[in-house]
Amino acid sequence: MRRASRCAVIGADSPEALALAGQAAHAVTYSLTDRKADWRAGSVHPHGDGVCFRCRNRTVRLAVPGRHNVANALCAAACCEALGVAPAEALAALESFRGIERRLQVVGRTPDGITILDDFAHNPEKIAASLATLREQPGQIIVFYQPHGFRPTAMLRAGIVEAFASRLAGGDLVLMPEIYYAGGTAERNLSSRDLVADLAARGVDARFAESRAAAADAIERAVRPPRCRVVVMGARDPSLGPFARYLYDTLGQCD
Fold first, then answer.
1. Does residue 240 share a domain with residue 123?
2. Contact, 89 vs 106, CB < 8 A?
3. b/e burial code for range 86-112 (CB count within 10 A of at least 16 → b)
4. What is the pLDDT of residue 1?
5. Alpha carbon 103 to chain centroid distance?
6. How many domains does the chain have?
């Protein structure tokens, strides 16, 4: 790191990343919690569909939600400053960012207040970040989660279960179809049914989805508007985005 760059931008909220600061010729830090960081955010709170925070004596309103996106914004602003952009200009530019596809992307809202989202979260850390963001607002959360890969799912099983079990509440629901197989030689010695059983043992309303049609039917019966978020979550399976749009079309027609 010392040889490769003049400046390293480091997240001070990660002990592993912060340990690298001493190896950089010049380190700039950012944090949501460390008041000694060069870039830090305060007064973080939801604001509409996004999040609002204070930084460098100004209020910043992001169009994307979640504390993880505040951290991303601080990192981007710190990088811009390292490249010669004025901090005020960098922070102002962040407010025009509208997010990217399949990152808690709002597919649509039904007339009775159901919000359908499409999300790429697939490992424990990303699932936890997405659910924590959704939990910042009151209301029901229904997740259609598509595990992918038999070996990755086996390796991450405990973490996936913990991410859901620690962040969902009574009235929430997880629907899980069979593990998405993208090829390879991994043994198919694990099923989504096993994760559903793990979640049920933790008190989560988790159900195995035999098909997309069965999942859509279960979601239609379970939704409790007006404050309800339905999230299609997972990676690699190209049909997830279209399924989220199908749910929006279907739920939008429900009486």
1. yes
2. no
3. ebeebbeebeeeebeebbbbebebbee
4. 45
5. 6
6. 2
9-43: string of b/e by CB count within 10 Å (b at 16+)? Answer: bbbbbeeeebeeeeebeebbbbbbeeeebbbbbee
Per the DSSP assignment, residues forming a β-bridge with 31 are: 40
Q: Does one domain contain both 80 and 114?
A: no
Containing domain of residue 78, as a range? 8-94
Residues 199 and 221 in one domain: yes
Dihedral through CA 61, CA 70, CA 237, CA 249, nearest 10? Answer: -30
- Decide the pairing of beta strands 58-62 and 105-109: unpaired
Cβ neighbours of 239 (radius 10 Å): 13
**Global pTM?**
0.87
Instruction: Verify that 112 and 90 share a domain, yes or no.
Output: no
> Can you give the length of the chain in residues?
255
Q: Which two tokens stand for residue 117?
A: 């989202």
Task: Report angle CA 195, 240, 175 to the nearest 5 degrees.
Answer: 30
How far is CA 53 from its chain centroid? 19
Shared domain for 114 and 234, answered yes or no, is: yes
Q: Alpha helix (H) ranges present in 59-149? A: 67-82, 87-94, 124-135
158 and 85 fall within a common domain: no
Indicate if the alpha-carbon torsion angle 12, 17, 19, 24 is positive or negative.
negative
Q: Which two tokens stand for residue 120?
A: 């790429």
pLDDT for 29-57, tens place per residue?
A: 999 999 999 999 999 999 988 999 999 99
pLDDT of 3 higher than 60: no
